[in-house]
Design brief:
The structure holds 2 protein chains of 2 kinds.
Chain A lengths: L3 E2 L4 E5 L4 E3 L2 E2 L5 E8 L6 E6 L5 E3 L5 E5 L4 E6 L8 E9 L6 E2 L3 E6 L1
Parallel strand pairs in A: 2-12
Antiparallel strand pairs in A: 1-4, 3-9, 5-6, 5-10, 7-8, 8-9, 10-11, 10-12
Chain B lengths: L4 E3 L2 E4 L5 E6 L6 E7 L5 E8 L2 E4 L8 E4 L6 E5 L8 E8 L7 E2 L3 E5 L1
Parallel strand pairs in B: 2-11
Antiparallel strand pairs in B: 1-3, 3-8, 4-5, 4-9, 5-6, 7-8, 9-10, 9-11
Classes of the chains: A mainly beta, B mainly beta.
């Protein structure tokens, strides 16, 4: 069965620090990859997605993610976080041929002002 | 509408009671998905619809859970005879196509006492 691992469950940063959240998946074939964010009290929103093409994907709010096929990874990055980035971040993976995303357990990010 | 709407926001039921949750997908989206998130863990896929037809119900505990998407009505997820372990946030999502980005609703928090 496919699994999605987010190794950092809780991350605490100060404003302006750089962020990298890990996401690894276990499926070896074609995948579609997503990062979702859930701000406190709000619903899940899509930050960015990768289907094909340039493995470095730019998303909203200054986020980016890099698909490294050889490492089965899709890590999320932001060079300088803000207090407003405090949220839960979920990685999700659709394996080729399946439209049902498998979600990671999420990473809780707290940014101190 | 422009957003996925879910009602109610919160639902409290005694063990053994029935619970019914509703979801209105974004207008023009033909796919609806239901997920269960227990204790901020990963999202568990329950069921999906293509218009009013069940597309995939591999995640549904069929003995107590049922779901419908009828024309011109919100979709619904019903739990007969709720159990304590059904306490979770239930998310609905909709998309234009089965492989497209899913747009999530705010969720319904079900508490079974």
């Amino acid at each position: 069965a496919q699994s999605v691992s987010q190794h950092n469950h809780h991350v605490i940063l100060s404003e302006a620090a750089s962020l990298e959240l890990g996401c690894n998946y276990s499926y070896g074939g074609t995948v579609n990859l997503f990062w979702y964010v859930q701000y406190p009290g709000q619903h899940l929103q899509l930050l960015l997605k990768y289907f094909s093409g340039d493995p470095l994907v730019k998303g909203i709010k200054g986020f980016e993610a890099e698909f490294i096929k050889s490492k089965f990874s899709f890590n999320l990055r932001k060079p300088s976080v803000q207090w407003s980035d405090t949220a839960e971040y979920f990685c999700a993976v659709n394996r080729g041929g399946s439209y049902i995303p498998t979600f990671g357990r999420g990473t809780s990010l707290i940014v101190h002002p | 509408g422009e957003e996925v709407a879910q009602t109610p926001k919160h639902l409290v039921r005694g063990e053994g009671q029935k619970a019914k949750l509703y979801c209105a997908p974004i207008k023009g989206h033909s796919y609806v998905f239901w997920y269960q998130q227990v204790l901020k863990n990963e999202f568990k896929f329950l069921i999906s619809f293509q218009n009013e037809n069940v597309f995939d119900e591999t995640g549904m505990p069929k003995e107590r859970f049922s779901a419908k998407c009828l024309p011109n009505s919100p979709c619904s997820l019903e739990i007969q005879a709720t159990k304590l372990e059904d306490s979770a946030v239930y998310f609905c999502a909709s998309s234009q196509g089965s492989y497209n980005e899913q747009f999530f609703g705010p969720g319904t928090r079900l508490t079974v006492l």
